Sequence to fold (298 residues):
Amino acid sequence: MPRGNRDTSSGNLKNSMRDNYTEHGVDEYYKKVGATYRNPHFPGVKACMYLWLNRWWRMRQPHIDAKKFKVFDLACGAGEVTAAVLEWWRDGRDTFTARQSRGGHDAESDSETVVPARRLRLPPPIPPEMTVPCILAADPYTTQAFHTRTHLYAHPLSFRDIAEGKLPEIASKPVGAPKPNNPPESPSPEGSVRGHSPSKSSISTAASLEANIIEMVVCSFALHLIEKPSELFALLWELSLKARWLVVLAPHKRPEIKDGWGWCKWDVETWSECRLTDSVGELLEDRVHCRVYRSLNV
Fold:
């Protein structure tokens, strides 16, 4: 299945992704264009991410740890999602600075100066204590294209690698970079299970696990490439143990995520759970569909 049917830009071989997949196969195609791949749907990806992040910020702000905002760009391609997240953060910081220069007046509240449709896309004021998002990125084919665009580092992990429990390190460090000397010891989750210092250990373990939670996994134009339901289940269940939100961007409504896979569908408008088969609360921008899911295990 193609990532998208829109005519593609140079660097992606033929103009049609469907033709590329038919001629080369998915794996071979991305091996050929891994260093030059570009997603032509970036405007829609960016618009969807801005709308989602604005809503997420408004509803989750009191609970956001300003120093631990982790975003996992899964099957990161050329970094379209990462670019959108970082641009949203920078625009939000600029909005905050502009508001401060006006003595705290919020220009967005002036309906005569900002049309409603544009207001939805304007990032909220992001204060200085909200540090730059911590990006994790993985793609077995396009690490070079990701680095070229973002100057960050993606790990060459596949869907199967992630399903087996592997995760990339933060994207600001080169793959294989040495870890800090004498890293702080983290409590073992088994400690409380086995009965060693139950009260203190369990509290420390809970804090450690919470600190390691990924706020959101975003998979753009790739999740539907997993054709076997058993493989999709394995991936999504593993992610549900490590991440709070799953954001799926696609040119259509595939893949189907089922009950018992660790996620509930989330209505972005009402900020509440909805049926997996419902289309309410989804986002659609420039032919890009955005569906959001909330982990049932975090």
Q: What stands out?
A: The first helix runs from residue 17 to 24. The chain has a mean pLDDT of 80. Residues 192 and 200 are 9 Å apart (CA to CA). The radius of gyration is 20 Å.
